[in-house]
Fold Late embryogenesis abundant protein LEA-2 subgroup domain-containing protein.
Amino acid sequence: MVRSARVDRYTFGAVQLGHWCIRWDPPNLFKHINLLSRPKPQRLLRQSAALRHRLPLRRRRPPPNAYYNYQNNPYYQSDPNTLRRPTLLRRLLALVIGLIVVFAAITFIVWLVLRPQLPQFRVDSFSVSNFTLGNNSLISFTSQVRLTARNPNKKITLSYDHIDAVVFYRSSSLSDTVVPPFSQDTKSETSLTANFAAVGTFVDQLAVNGINNERGSRGTVGFNLRMLSRVRFKAKAWRTRHRLLKVFCGDLVVGIPSNGRPGTLTGGPRQCRVGI
């Protein structure tokens, strides 16, 4: 009876192993048939039990790279918001780049058509009278500077706010004044006059020593003139915002041999540097 039960279990295990080989492992079918020809019931029963446990796991085994390749995984659903963010950023970046390119192209075309140029300034005369410099570092004088402002543009007019003008000796300020506002048409020149006056203005000792040395050696004093103004460029419908115009007229040598003597500009008119 025991032997009969073992044979029945052996037969059942062999049949189960054969079914499994035919269905899941056809290439090794003959290997398993050879195994069946050997009467080892206990081994076959153990293999049959192992196969019964492994069979459901093999059926549920996912395809290769299922959890690493999201595109081939039918159970993975990507977040639509995550996909929209890179697309939105790319569109915004493309829009910003497009606006920059369009603005640069418009600016370049306007520059080609109008060809804007900076105005030109020239000092025509610089006269000084009643110039006195005492040992107490106090300076007094009156001065008049005549300038010419020129607009070299063919299609652009200029509009100036008031001009702040300052007379320097090296880096020491001696006197300042204001020139009234004015406008200029295309290809035009405007004469300007700036009047300066200083009465007992204190200057540092370095400036006093420098002025006395120049008057004693050459009989002249070199001054500097600086002007600041807000200017606007206009061309029919095209207008710019106000720009800060800087004008510097350096090395204005005036003959002043001694105190109380008048002096004038030597060496003729001087061209000034202009910048924005």
